[in-house]
Amino acid sequence: MNYTESSPLAESPAIGFTSKLESIIPVPSNETTCENWREIHHLVFHVANVFFAIGLVIPTTLHLHMILLRGMLAIGCSFYIMWATLYRCALDIVIWNSVFLGVNMLHLSYLLFKKRPVKIEKELNGVYRRLFEPLLVPPDLFRRLTGQFCMIQTLTKGQTYAAEDKTSVDDRLSILLKGRMKVSYRGHFLHNIYPCAFIDSPEFRSTQMHKGEKFQVTIVADDNCRFLCWSRERLTYFLESEPFLYEIFRYLIGKDITNKLYSLNDPTLNDKAKKLEHQLSLCTQISMLEMRNSIASSSDSEDGLHQFLRGTPSVSSLHVSSPHQRASAKMKPIEEGVEDDDEVFEPVSPKTLKVHELP
């Protein structure tokens, strides 16, 4: 029978290896897995976790919830780095939390950059506050609208913005910033244009980018004026890429046309129109272009204005050609679905007309 005697020299390396392995991998006790709990970590460790918890419970309905979340995470990572450096001396914890801190700081900087206050030019601030801000248009979007393809132009008193049957309507769209303009048709005053109002909104709406159309009215600066002017073609392309702003412009232009129709009853009319101020309330129920054509259909301009405002059966002259008719035949009328003109201007007797007079 073979027998090999163990040597103490052969056992010593095995014993040393086993002792090292036991020091690396702790052998759990048979009674419990955690027999000796370590002491509680430093207060800095708990403060870091408190900031993490605050960041995670911020409701998403809060306006600045993403900024607050990134801020809380960045503060928590900073406290973790402080704890690992001063109290644990753990290089791996320091490295990982430094990476997390850098990512959160970059995201926080981006969010703060997006929330920065957008500076609007002082001259355009009134237009933004009155027209675009109530419709929730962001300042950065308004700045894009006014910063690329528009310019601010000036007209001195008496200069013409648009001449009847001469100036093309498909070149521009403008908003008056300062001063006052006067709109007239064949010498007949129609209405004024004041700051923060579109200058040529009826033409913009009616032509719908048809080339070659001309203004049917004359627009003259009644004071030193400054206005914001867009290139009409470039503005149309820009609005096609911004559906929200496209709907805003549709609303603003429609509202401006309505205001111009009601301004025909403005008490600051010329002397001839002041004599008919009780009858001018009828003008608020028809389109501006029809009024201009009605005036132009009569050789005697003053009689034509009286005839139009009386609402007699001669309203059919709106469609009768005349050698003095100067309105464009291609110009599309402004669509108005409120009332039919035939229903508004029914033939009435002088007695019935008194009922409609203003008090």
Number of strands: 8
Structural class by helix and strand composition: alpha+beta
- Helix count from the secondary structure assignment: 14
Q: What sequence of helices (H) and strands (E) makes up the elements? A: HHHHHHEEEEEEHEEHHHHHHH
Average pLDDT rating:
74
- Strand % is 5-15%
| Distance N to C terminus | 138 Å
Shape: rod-shaped
Radius of gyration: 39 Å
Percent in helix: 40-55%
Biggest beta-sheet profile: 4 strands, antiparallel
Low-confidence segments, ≥5 residues, pLDDT <50? 1-15, 267-288, 291-302, 304-359
Order of the strands making up the biggest sheet: 1-8-3-6
Which structural traits does this protein have?
359 residues; alpha+beta; four-stranded antiparallel sheet; 14 helices; 8 strands; disordered N terminus; disordered C terminus
